[in-house]
Amino acid sequence: MEPDTDTHDTHAEPRAEPHAEPHAEPEPMVVDAVVVGAGFAGLYAIHKLRSLGLTVQAFEAAPEVGGTWWWNCYPGARCDVESLDYCYAFDEDLMREWKWSERFPTQAEVLRYAQNVADRFDLRRHIRFETTVTAAHWDEQSRRWAFDTDRGQRVAARWFVSAVGAISAPNLPGIEGLDTFEGQVLMTSRWPHEGVELEGKRVAVIGTGSSGIQAIPVIAQVAGHLTVFQRTANFSCPAGNGPIDPEREATVRADYPGYRRACLKNGAGTPTLLLSQSAFDLGEAERLAAYEAKWARGGAGGVPALFADTRTSLEANQTAADFVRGKIREIVADPEVAESLCPKDHPIATKRICLDTDYYATYNRPNVTLVDLRKTPIERITPAGIATAGRELPQDVIIFATGFDALTGALLRMDIRGVGGRSLAEAWEDGPQTYLGLMVAGFPNMFTITGPLSPSVLINVMVAISHHVEWIGDCVSHMTERGFDRIDATPDAQAEWTAEVQRIADGTLFPLANSWYNGDNIPGKPRRFLAYIGGFPAYAGRCEQVVAAGYEGFELSASHPVAAVD
Ligand code: NA7
């Protein structure tokens, strides 16, 4: 595609721009596409759109690529998808040449991979780092989006590709007294890259989701004393991490592209097979033996990934939940602590299942204490520590592992305004509505990679990202070839999709949990199931059908008369 004549050079090296003078009105730079975010979604989007001949400008708030893998560099941070699956499949040389060292890669290794991709495909020159997009407004007349950044840049683009990430907007709970604390306050999701000295210190961790469960065993090894503040006990299964098994690696690498294509036939876009067996197809002894074997092997969805009906039948779910609770009671020496650690208020895996290394055993250490917030809630944070049940627990460091405003948070933190100046916040007042998780009606030419109501966090997110980027690339090519310059989802198609996503979720046990999947962790967030749970093959099939039917549910148009294309 030819760039607009008024396009500025987008191929300059990234550089820190001085903040704009107050009241200065710089002329907007015009490019074909703006990509917001330079994590895995943004990197691939830049590469894809550039390969179509588009001029691309990306913005990234961090000083580096990597997105969530840049920010979440807390001790113990690790991917819970296996490394051989958690990578791009679009370039065979990259797949062949990049070697992972562990079954589940550390944050540092995933970040190195992202950096390698950025360098290998020369993507950095398109990215303005340390720059946050503050506003994106649709201009109907020019059929372009106008962007503002916190550094005063103004850019206009035909295509707006959001690559802001599904779990990227941190949630810092407003606990009374936090601003009075005289020690150090940290968030796992904004961990300092220079590292933190925790040796010998009194450390508090608030939150026991995946981040807390990964960080706690590692912090416990160095802290003088670690106090864990747990609001909801969470199910966790052993990751079974270790060096990559050379035999398995050799098998996968014998036909890596074929292996990855085969994974796309599975619900989660990983090698986990589509399950057909019910937990009750086996007798009790056989079922327990299967759970034992899975627990010993570790990885891939843990014990609840064994049977097809764990997600849909409370009775089947209970067999897996009882098994894990039994393990917790076996591992944790103090029965009272073990009971507090046993989740009882939600079916297993209806909050994201955690994979850990020695999480439960960590509570047997003499320097670790569990505070069960269901029994003794936090009253306030004091200058010296945390007060619960009328006593103060002094701390040097408080670490918040309190999660994210998932799926919608990062989008809503920008001032996005579509047709008629309507804000995204207004459009999503009752919860997010999207068509295929890819577009929002009334926000033309805006694509949301792993957006709300797409499979996103419920499948291997590298598969989700790749699918969206390729779908968007195909759509933009289709439009450009035909001279179209505006695409919008129809309200009807969007309403139908939004209802379908909820309907499928309602057929599972997921709505029974208070979880970020339902938006429950953010006060005031409307309750709605935020991801498509029907599995990758069904989702991808639906997207293909939509395209085959001439972008059914979308309206494509041109500002100038267009010639017919075969
Ligand atoms: P999660 O899974 O949302 O976990 C956050 C944890 O923080 C969870 O245990 C919460 O308890 C707890 N929390 C949140 N707010 C509070 C307050 N106010 N007081 C006490 N405890 C609180 O986030 P993670 O970062 O661990 O993981 C997110 C995803 O990132 C993960 O699934 C991976 O995909 C990567 P709650 O359960 O809400 O009672």
**Average pLDDT, all residues:** 93
Q: What small ligands are held by the chains? A: ligand NA7
Distance N terminus to C terminus?
19 Å
Query: What value does the Rg take, in angstroms?
Result: 24 Å
Shape: globular
CATH topology tier name of the largest domain: FAD/NAD(P)-binding domain
Supply the CATH superfamily name of the largest domain.
Answer: FAD/NAD(P)-binding domain
Describe this structure in words.
The protein has 566 residues and is an alpha/beta fold. The chain folds into two domains: 29-169 and 406-557, 3-Layer(bba) Sandwich (FAD/NAD(P)-binding domain); 178-400, no CATH class. 29% of the residues lie in helices and 16% in strands. Strands 1, 2, 3, 4, 5, 6, 17 and 18 form an eight-stranded mixed sheet that branches. A five-stranded parallel sheet has the order 7-16-8-9-12, with helices on one face. Strands 13-14-15 form a three-stranded antiparallel sheet, with no helix packed on it. A hairpin with a 4-residue loop joins strand 5 and strand 6 (154-162). Helix 9 (314-331) runs antiparallel to helix 10 (335-341). It is globular. 48% of the residues are buried. It binds ligand NA7.
Chart the SSEs and their pairings.
Layout: E1 29-36, H1 40-51, E2 56-59, H2 68-71, H3 92-97, H4 107-120, E3 127-128, E4 133-139, E5 144-149, E6 154-162, E7 184-187, E8 202-206, H5 210-220, E9 225-230, E10 236-238, H6 246-254, H7 256-263, H8 284-297, H9 314-331, H10 335-341, E11 354-356, E12 368-372, E13 378-381, E14 385-388, E15 391-394, E16 397-400, H11 409-412, E17 415-417, H12 424-427, E18 446-448, H13 461-482, E19 486-489, H14 491-506, H15 536-548, E20 554-557
Parallel strand pairs: 1-2, 1-6, 2-3, 4-17, 6-18, 7-16, 8-9, 8-16, 9-12, 10-11
Antiparallel strand pairs: 4-5, 5-6, 13-14, 14-15, 19-20
Helix pairs in contact: 1-13, 9-10, 13-15
The structure holds ligand NA7.
